[in-house]
Task: structure prediction
Amino acid sequence: MKVLTLNFLTCAVKTCKSSANSFPLHPKDAELVSDDVELNPQLLVNLLPRIDWNALRITSTELGFPQLPEQPPTAEELQSDEKMLKDLHTLLMETQINEGKLVCGNCGHEYAVREGIANFLLPSHLV
Ligand SMILES: [Zn+2]
Result:
């Protein structure tokens, strides 16, 4: 699963929906792989407003990537900043979590990721 996907996932446990701690999920023992994807600056510019920047900063640091700036770049800044474009492209589009776990910061539930696919099925007592 792409790092981008992690920016849109929260814990599936019902009581976690209202908790700010359930997002973003925290990768644990993550084995990363990198796909070669062609850089598409316009796609990144279009994505930017839909991304939860604070969550992405947390994810980026937890995966061992360089820390992102505190504020997201504006569309104009991003278009003219080749390094930022490349860094975001690598992080969001090319990096995949292949194996590992995603941990909820609220309930501690661990979702397994196997062969790039996260399993969000919950044991019956949590549904
Ligand atoms: Zn949870």
In short: The first strand starts at residue 26 and ends at 34.
